[in-house]
UniProtKB/TrEMBL annotation:
PANTHER family: MURAMOYLTETRAPEPTIDE CARBOXYPEPTIDASE (PTHR30237), MUREIN TETRAPEPTIDE CARBOXYPEPTIDASE (PTHR30237:SF2). The keyword Hydrolase applies. The active site is at S109, E202, H272. It comes from Adhaeribacter arboris. GO terms for molecular function: carboxypeptidase activity; serine-type peptidase activity. Belongs to the peptidase S66 family. The lineage of its organism: Bacteria, Pseudomonadati, Bacteroidota, Cytophagia, Cytophagales. Residues 171-287 form the LD-carboxypeptidase C-terminal domain. Keywords: Carboxypeptidase, Hydrolase, Protease, Serine protease. The keyword Hydrolase applies. This is LD-carboxypeptidase. Residues 13-128 form the LD-carboxypeptidase N-terminal domain.
Length: 303
């Protein structure tokens, strides 16, 4: 696994919009915070894009991302927000120059597809808070975690205990993200092998029956059978039908993982809420779930 260089004061980073449109005013708090870290922030053309719900048409967003990937001066690229549209771009992107000068790619939600695509190519990335959420109440810990990860500072995480937790310990590379996107990329060049990995998942604004259907799909594909461990994050603003599904999101996940033996941590702070701690996709990590809660720490890479 290849890890881009950690950031230093004076480095250049870029913000672009891979999916839904956003205004420059919405990311001003992020620009101010990133600048306060000593970074020079480059603004992508897609931030001025407006094509229906997208941040410009596909051609604009592809060109913007490609330009940033090709620029050896940039040390990180942060997606301004999620939404929908990243999967429309991936097969048109050339990673040749990126591979010569790797840089951190940061995002979550719809950006899950790109993070998994990079994992398949052997490059680490960051599942973390995006500029659209900077400055919101409760985002301080998420922003600080992103700062520590980008600058290569030591960090570990702890989550309170949960009645659904399955106790145990496991080590493996972190991979995951939004459940809808993990389903969307199955069978595509962006799909990844989950065996021996610590999978983390989160979701927002989905009907409970559809969450169940996606878990069935992951299970039938064998994605859940050979995990080292599972981290279940935020299930935000989940919806139900007039005839209730009769299970919560966490109950659905517990049901579909009941026959496995790996440790499971529920209610970990990752996903579509401001307390969204930065996770390094592709990094070796150790997950410990016991009576006192859940603990996640990064491990040294094997030489």
């Amino acid at each position: 696994m290849i890890f881009p260089p950690t950031l230093q004061p004076g480095d250049k980073i870029a913000i672009c919009a891979l999916a839904r449109k956003i205004t420059l005013a919405e990311i001003q708090p992020a620009i101010q915070i990133l600048t306060s870290w000593g970074l020079e922030v480059v603004i992508g053309k897609s931030l001025a894009g407006d094509f229906h719900q997208f941040a410009g048409n596909d051609e604009l967003r592809i060109s913007d991302l490609q330009t940033m990937l090709d620029n050896p001066e940039l040390k990180a690229i942060i997606s301004a927000r999620g939404g929908y549209g990243t999967t429309r771009l991936l097969d048109q992107i050339d990673f040749t120059l990126f591979e010569q000068h790797p840089k951190w790619i940061v995002g979550f939600s719809d950006i899950t597809a790109l993070l998994c695509h990079l994992f398949g190519k052997g490059y680490a990335s960051i599942h973390g808070i995006m500029p659209s959420l900077f400055g919101r109440a409760g985002s301080e810990a998420a922003i600080e975690s992103l700062h520590r990860v980008l600058f290569g500072e030591p960090i570990s995480y702890q989550a309170p205990g949960h009645t659904f937790n399955r106790l145990g310990e496991a080590s493996g590379r972190l991979i995951g993200g939004n459940i809808s996107l993990l389903n969307t990329i199955i069978g595509t060049p962006s799909d990844v092998d989950y065996a021996g990995k610590i999978l983390f998942v989160e979701e927002i604004d989905e009907y409970l029956y559809n969450l169940d259907r996606m878990l069935v799909q992951l299970k039938r594909c064998g994605k859940l059978a050979n995990l080292a461990g599972l981290i279940v994050g935020h299930m935000t603003d989940m919806r139900d039908n007039p005839i209730p599904f009769a299970k919560t999101a966490y109950e659905i996940i517990r049901e579909h993982t009941a026959n496995y033996t790996y440790p499971i941590c529920f209610d970990f702070p990752t996903g579509h809420e401001t307390h969204n701690l930065a996770l390094i996709c592709g990094k070796q990590a150790h997950l410990k779930v016991n009576e006192n809660g859940s603990f996640l720490e990064y491990l040294p890479e094997e030489l």
